[in-house]
Amino acid sequence: MSDKFASSTRFFASRPGIIITGGVIGVFASLLQKFGNPVNMGICVACFERDIAGALGLHRAAVVQYIRPEIIGFVLGACLAALLFREFKARSGSAPIVRFVLGVFAMIGALAFLGCPWRALLRLAGGDWNAILGLAGLTVGIAVGIQFLKSGYNLGRSYATYAAVGWVMPVLMAGLLLLVLFRPQFTPDGAIFFSQSGPGSLHAPLIISLSAGLLIGFLAQRTRFCTMGSIRDVILMGDTHLLSGVGALLIAAFVANLALGQVKFGFAPQPVAHSSHLWNFLGMALAGLAFALAGGCPGRQLFLAGEGDGDAGVFVLGMIVGAGFSHNFALAGKPDAIVDGALSVGGISSAGMTAVVLGLVVCCIIGFTMREKA
Asked: Per the UniProt record, which residue ranges are transmembrane (predicted)?
């Protein structure tokens, strides 16, 4: 590697590198909201993958259907960085079916809360106090996952494989980019679907969304940015390197939101959020546990998929399928609303509650049964 590349690698591995990355994510998330993305949802990996699932017809919730260019940019930006720094390595074989199941339940938990870890931070930066319950649940879920790691939990090694395996997710994302650019209609009333109202209809201009995604994907691949990893490293080793990037995201987003007039403090009603505290906590506890068992938060899984990790790609596909399940079977959270001048508290259905509890049980079974024996 040339001296120039080596110097760049050292910078991205440094604390200033991870802080700058977190700050860029926070500022761009606030700007994307200003340019048209939903409120407190400038960036949300779970919500955006849910919108993609809807656009492809995997669910028919008409208000959340759009091929989000940010997700495409995350994968392609990470792919570009990996190629440039010679880190693109096709690998797979580490319990892919288990990773798929973890992806499904990670999405069910995230949509019970109505957001991924990034959106939890962005909701807090916008004044939504419900995010505190979500972040607490996320931390508890990750902490439980760490106990499994300490007791020998392991999904097994991934192995170098054919280059084509590593290119599957970048090529799929390029295909999605073509779909959002040309918007083909394959049947008179069928896919590709695009929301005409609701959160799915709110989006920044495509070039801005894609550019932000590419930049964030590039930086996050170089710095290994990961919200789950930040909490894991603090609990396991007392290492705050990744946490400093997550803190920078929160602070940068809050300052940018203040400057843009995008802060509203309180519990209810907050945009695309509910104040059912128990299920905010448990939903993110399920998501955090699934992320810990899979080895990365949903953003990190996208970046890994961009650098050739087929197992991360399987987790991403599991989350997209999980979004279909969540909306087809009414498992996702319902936002708070003002009805006839009175607050109607949202939350999740009895089916959603069952799914969250079932997910916690299944993840614990995976954690217990996939431990290496001494």
From this structure: 12-32, 66-85, 97-120, 132-149, 161-182, 202-220, 241-261, 281-300, 312-330, 342-368
308 Rama sector, left if φ>0, alpha if ψ -120 to 50, beta otherwise: left
What span, in angstroms and rounded, lies between the C-alpha atoms of 34 and 256? 10
Q: How far is CA 15 from the centre of its chain?
A: 23
Tell me, rounded to whole angstroms, the distance of Cα 274 from its chain centroid.
19
Q: Phi and psi of 91, rounded to 5°? A: -150, 155
Q: What is the CA 112 to chain-centroid distance, rounded?
A: 14
β-partners of residue 347 are: 334
The residue ranges of every structural domain in the chain are: 3-369
* Residue-by-residue pLDDT tens, the chain, 374 positions: 566 667 778 888 899 999 999 999 999 999 999 999 999 999 999 999 999 999 999 999 999 999 999 999 999 999 999 999 999 999 999 999 999 999 999 999 999 999 999 999 999 999 999 999 999 999 999 999 999 999 999 999 999 999 999 999 999 999 999 999 999 989 888 889 999 999 999 999 999 999 999 999 999 999 999 999 999 999 999 999 999 999 999 999 999 999 999 999 999 899 999 999 999 999 999 999 999 999 999 999 999 999 999 999 999 999 999 999 999 999 999 999 988 888 899 999 999 999 999 999 999 999 999 998 65
How much is the pTM?
0.96
